[in-house]
Amino acid sequence: MTQFRASAKLILIVFIISEKYNLQNGEETGKMKEFGKCLQDKRREKKLTLKQVADDLGVSISYLSDLENGEKLPPNSKKDEYSNFMNKIFEYYNINQEERRLILELADKELLEKGHLSNDITNYLGKTPMASVALRTAKEKELTDEEWKKIIENMNK
């Protein structure tokens, strides 16, 4: 039952984020300013240069600059150098759990707007076939945000 709750919780998060931002209609919002702005604010808070951060995180200056300026999607590649980049960012800037949640929500929002799911969710759906079944069932039933909130509250009990 615990595994079901965890599976259902992840599915609900994906669904709610996509519903919250009305992403089913395929609209694109242009540049990814919000996610990049968070990264830029963290770097500037610590008074670090792009070069310092890029060197420390093992990415190119241009990649980091593009992320900060909304020219690149949030890290979602399976390439070795980027596969764990979000965790590297969190550790590097010593980002707390609440900020992590916010940054991941922004990253997910931007990925979904461009028709992508984050790798952790894609991997989870691949390992947990019932998660896809649950999402499809919810879609067929046209669950509302209120119904999803009740399901999440029930899972958190």
What is the C-level CATH assignment of the largest domain? Mainly Alpha
**Major sheet summary line:** none
Sheet-strand content, in percent, reads under 5%
Figure out the total of helices.
10
Which topology of the largest domain does CATH recognise?
Answer: 434 Repressor (Amino-terminal Domain)
CATH superfamily of the largest domain: lambda repressor-like DNA-binding domains
Taking all residues together, what is the mean pLDDT? 79
CA-atom Rg in angstroms? 17 Å
Low-confidence stretches: 18-32
- The termini sit apart by 12 Å
What is the strand tally? 0
Structural class: mainly alpha
Helix amount = over 70%
Tell me what the structure shows:
This protein has 157 residues and is mostly helical. It folds into 2 domains: 1-25 and 115-157, no CATH class; 27-105, 434 Repressor (Amino-terminal Domain). Helices cover 70% and strands 0% of the residues. The longest helix has 19 residues, at 2-20. The two termini are 12 Å apart. Mean pLDDT is 79; it is low at 18-32.
Characteristic key phrases:
single chain, 157 residues, mainly alpha, 434 Repressor (Amino-terminal Domain), 10 helices
Briefly summarize what is shown.
By secondary structure, the chain is an all-alpha fold. It has helices at 2-20, 33-45, 50-57, 61-68, 80-83, 85-92, 97-113, 119-127, 129-141, 145-155. It folds into two domains: 1-25 and 115-157, no CATH class; 27-105, 434 Repressor (Amino-terminal Domain) (Orthogonal Bundle).
